[in-house]
Specification:
alpha/beta; binds NADPH dihydro-nicotinamide-adenine-dinucleotide phosphate; binds retinal; oxidoreductase
């Protein structure tokens, strides 16, 4: 005689079904793990992406890399140093920079690497860096605008700019502006701008570039990376005929400290780490754009995996590029020479360092507290729109 009640029968059926499901899931995971293990060399090879095959030596050449104390920047520094270049590692944290330099010296015998302080979130730091650089370094053949910040909570730079656009775009714009004279005097020379595939998802919010109206950390990052692409194209146009080239790069999806501000992204990257590039693999396209012989006269293009890459329509719009250039110049206190069409706005002194009003303000801030550049920028914004 069956002693089970109908409810008990249902419960035992449900229990068996759950057990079966668990076994199926466990078996499925086991199969996936086995496949991943079996094909791990192929997966790793695919994930690694393009490799820079150039054997070019860089003896006697000078390279400057921002954010060179970690990730892609550190590996770029190591690669260029191993080719004989004198590499200046521009880092906001000198201690971290020195640790990275020590590691590079240990890995590359006779590496000529030096660390200098540069905080791209502070225009005064950028000016101080450039001033010293121009006094102490005679040539600059390779500038890699690599430093970047991603998905941080709403933060402002010292000058009051939103952090993503401030560091990733505005800071690098000012640095490039201050060093462009030296790059031209050292020609042939190259500028590499580390952008991202993320530029595809960005658009330039001219009405609220600093996300004061609304803030989304992902979109702010995408906007700044689109700004990198637009800056590259506009600078290439302005540098035409100077023998200084500029190209932008998507390094790939790379295991680095970039995700430090996003727990979700950090977890995703940890779980899928096998599919990501190592920083060394991520540095390949930057190195390629910095040295490849076949790119000698290529400028204004975008690269990924050491090959030309797709640029989103909003990254190809010349009008947006010019408008962004003008807005950036205004934020930096550099007034666009619309008539003459000069490479950069006309306010540079003989060394290329600003000798006008803004640098005076910076000097003041070193001793006291600087009056905000933002007030001036807002004035110009009101004037412009
Ligand atoms: N990792 C990836 O998957 C991708 C990265 N990229 C781009 O590659 C570049 C390098 O990133 P990655 O190596 O991955 O990330 P990391 O976080 O490892 O490196 C970023 C570097 O930028 C520096 N940095 C940040 N803020 C400033 C600042 N205010 N002044 C000076 N330096 C600063 C960091 O210094 P500190 O250590 O002191 O914070 C660090 O050295 C970035 O531009 C990023 O947008 C693009 C696409 C994908
Ligand atoms: C969906 C998905 C992934 C996520 C990719 C992401 C989220 C890439 C982000 C790139 C960034 C942030 C570029 C920076 O500029 C992995 C981890 C590859 C594993 C496979 C599935």
């Amino acid at each position: 005689m069956n002693t089970f009640t109908p409810t008990e029968t249902h419960r035992s059926e449900a229990g068996s079904f759950m057990m079966l499901m668990l076994v199926v899931i466990a078996a499925g995971l086991g199969v996936v793990a086995l496949i991943l293990r079996l094909f791990s060399p192929q997966i790793r090879k695919y994930a690694a992406g393009g490799v820079c095959r150039s054997t070019a030596r860089l003896d006697g050449k000078v390279a400057l890399i921002t954010g060179a104390n970690s990730g892609i920047g550190k590996e770029t520094a190591l690669d260029l140093a191993s080719r004989g270049a004198r590499v200046i590692m521009a880092c906001r944290d000198v201690e971290k920079g020195e640790e990275a330099a020590t590691e590079i010296r240990a890995r590359v015998g006779g590496a000529k690497v030096e660390v200098r302080e540069l905080d791209l979130a502070d225009t005064c730091s950028i000016r101080a860096f450039a001033q010293r650089f121009l006094q102490e370094v005679d040539h600059l053949h390779i500038l890699v605008n690599n430093a970047g910040i991603m998905m941080c909570p709403y933060m402002k730079t010292v000058d009051g700019f939103e952090m993503h656009i401030g560091v990733n775009h505005l800071g690098h714009f000012l640095l490039t502006y201050l060093l462009i004279g030296l790059l031209k005097r050292s020609a042939p020379s190259r500028i590499v701008v580390v952008s991202s595939l993320a530029h595809n998802f960005g658009w330039i919010r001219f009405h609220d570039l600093h996300s004061q109206g609304s803030y989304n950390s992902g979109l702010a990052y995408c906007q700044s990376k689109l700004a990198n692409v637009l800056f590259t194209r506009e600078l290439a146009r302005r540098l035409h005929g100077s023998n200084v080239t500029v190209n932008s790069v998507h390094p790939g999806t790379v295991r680095s400290e970039l995700m430090r501000h996003s727990t979700a992204m950090s977890l995703l990257f940890a779980v899928f780490s096998m599919f990501l590039k190592t920083p060394k693999e991520g540095a390949q396209t930057s190195v390629y754009c910095a040295i490849a012989e076949e790119l000698q006269s290529i400028s204004g293009k975008h690269f990924s995996d050491c090959a030309p890459a797709f640029v989103a329509p909003q990254g190809r719009n010349e009008e947006t590029a010019r408008k962004l250039w003008d807005a950036t110049s205004t934020f930096m206190g550099l007034f666009p020479n619309r008539v003459g069409g000069a490479l950069f706005p006309v306010r540079a002194g003989p060394t290329g360092v600003l000798d006008g009003e803004l640098s005076q303000r910076c000097k003041k801030r070193v001793t006291s507290s600087c009056s905000s550049i933002v007030c001036m920028c807002l004035q110009h914004l009101c004037y412009q729109y």
